[in-house]
Write a structure and sequence with these properties.
It is built from ten helices and eleven strands.
């Protein structure tokens, strides 16, 4: 069996001063595949992604195993993590308004990753940035390279963020709602780029999303999270055979084109789901 890119066993996370863990007992492995993580806001999806990259300062992260390739992420120092983030693993964040520096030109911010991790000239980094901006379907990359974040649209800012995180050819990409600000056509183009990285370069991709239709059509496997726990794991094509009532409730709460006009189902959240073992 091929060795996984990422191995997570019994991951729990607690924020400072919190009375209980925000994430409890999460376990999964990731190979060269597209893994979706879905659930309501507050279910712990983004917290898991940030914990993998050690981007939760002050939080207590516990796990039986948190391994990325040949590294134990729990024992790496912050200096060692700085060499890993961006080059070997990266995270595409959800909102470019809060992720891009408002006083730096777009191209300079994208180039920072390449200049930090590779020995190259500024001219070489600029050429790489222009190539990546074109790859995420930005028209006129030369012009966009020299703009400030407030001069670009939200959708273009999201594509800039995706270009920034893919520039160094990482082995693991964690995408937190990467297409939320994009129109349908550009969304498909970006998903094709991510799919090509998994298929052609053999990377591992974690897709964090509220969009059940996106993950069921794009991912290979899906983790469903509720109240900080994984309640069900499904092959993406097997959503219709979901067994857990929470997963079925998420599906029933989705509007459907051509569906009936009756009110959508309301999620039934049961206290025992917080403690029951994963089936």
């Amino acid at each position: 069996m091929e060795k996984p890119i990422l191995d997570v066993k019994n991951l729990s996370i607690r924020y400072p001063g919190a009375p209980s863990d925000a994430v409890r007992g999460v376990s999964f492995s990731l190979g060269c595949e597209r893994l979706g993580i879905v659930g309501e806001s507050g279910s712990g999806k983004s917290t898991v992604g940030r914990a993998i990259l050690r981007l939760l300062p002050g939080a207590e992260i516990r796990a039986d195993a948190l391994r990325f390739q040949d590294m134990d992420l729990l024992t790496l120092t912050e200096t060692e993590m700085l060499k890993v983030r961006g080059q070997r693993m990266s995270m595409i964040l959800q909102d470019p308004k809060f992720s891009l520096n408002p006083i730096q030109r777009v191209g300079h911010q994208v180039a920072e990753t390449y200049l930090r991790h590779f020995k190259c000239s500024k001219a070489e980094a600029r050429a790489k940035v222009l190539e990546m901006l074109a790859a995420v379907k930005i028209r006129d990359p030369e012009r966009v390279h020299d703009l400030y974040p407030h001069e670009i649209s939200g959708g273009m800012g999201q594509r800039v963020m995706i270009a920034m995180m893919l520039l160094a050819d990482p082995d693991l990409v964690i995408a937190d709602e990467p297409t939320s600000a994009l129109d349908v056509t550009v969304r498909l183009q970006v998903l094709n780029i991510l799919d090509g990285l998994v298929r052609d370069r053999g990377i591992g991709l974690i897709m964090i999303s509220h969009d059940l239709n996106l993950v069921r059509n794009f991912c290979d496997r899906v983790l469903i999270m509720y109240a900080g726990r994984v309640v069900e794991v499904l092959q993406a094509g097997a959503f219709d055979r979901a067994r857990h009532p929470y997963t079925r409730g998420l599906l029933a709460a989705q509007p459907r084109i051509g569906g009936g006009r009756a009110p959508l189902a309301v999620l039934d959240r049961r206290p025992e789901w917080k403690e029951e073992p994963l089936a």
